[in-house]
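Database export, one record per block. Field names are fixed; values are copied verbatim from the stored entry.
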Amino acid sequence: MFWSKIFLPTLKDSPQDAEVISHQLMLRAGMIRKVTSGIYTWLPLGLRVLKKIENIVREEMDASGAQEVLMPMVQPRELWEETKRWEKMGPELLRIQDRHDRDFCLGPTHEEVITDLVRGNVKSYKELPINLYQIQTKFRDEIRPRYGVMRGREFLMKDSYSFNINEDSLNESYLLMKETYKKIIERLGLEYKIVKADSGAIGGDASEEFHVLAENGEDTIAVSDSSEFAINTELLLDEGEDINSLQGKPSPDGTGTIEIRKGIEIGHIFQLGEIYADAMNASVLDHEGKSQTLYMGCYGIGVSRLVAASIEQNHDDKGIIWPEVIAPFEVNIIAIGFGKDKMIAQAAIDIYNKLTSMGYEVILDDRNDGFGTKMKDAELIGIPINIIIGKQYTEKNEIELRHRDGQSSIGMIDDIETIFEYFKKEDS
């Protein structure tokens, strides 16, 4: 991809309504544009990152044995009435009517739809356990959408649902999803905590949240300084007690003391038990031929929210610092004087073609802008490696490599082929 050909409208300054770093940088880096409050268009650069995260989620879900489906966004009121959630969800449920005045909603979650699917098609315990997932746009009429894609009215989510014959089987599915979520987040290179949580509007017997640690996180969590223990602070506080009073208290798990941290909830897993199956008469025949109510688990992870969470953890005052696994491009070639110096232009194209043929995702900055502008944009959008071709090449046949994270930097390289050997080494 050539920079001049990609739709990449970067901004010098942050819009005034952007409160957190991820929102500011996603707007400035030309990843998203606001349509209205809580609703965004994903531009080519942002969509590349979103798709990479989506693919990682899909790979790990498939590896767990879960099967992908695609359920409708539009859901009929009748299904939600079965679980009594049509009213319980309140104004957060985005409701619509068709031309016949029939009530529908735009799905914020899909427990009712998936339970209806399974009750009509799974008849025997021999077909269990089963775990069905989808990656789909969700809708919630947030009272105050804020923080960009971290809390919007429309967002991309992976939600999955396990169906089991008994509690023991449900627990196995739950633990499998817990390990799957850990694999996803660790592949993304994010620091996180698994947090004991309230089941909220989803319901169920037990639930845990996955929080990416970040200063701008919406949630406040209590963590042990000596173990993996973590819990939502509201589950520890007595009425009228201040959050800060928990700092330094003994950890409830008996290990170390409590520290107060901020987190971004990017995933939530639930043991729902029989509550939805009971409400919707979902059952199978057990090994004795008797009707057995299904046990159910629910597992959600915010795909679009993971983009914002990654930025919150990986940035500096210059812009984004992408983990290589989800960077929109792996390599950026900055050709200084591309339109004026044929030797530089040809060298840049040769390197671009070589790296592309090796399987790397490369963007070539062929704009007529000066080096300062090109470098600032490169740092803003956070591509891991920049190859700089300028006068040093024409005079000394030298090329400079700069790593975006500042941790490792290769200075001048006097042989073009060295660059290819370097990439091969890094890839192995």
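Remark 1: The two ends are 25 Å apart (CA to CA).
Remark 2: The chain has two domains: 3-316, 329-427.
End of record.
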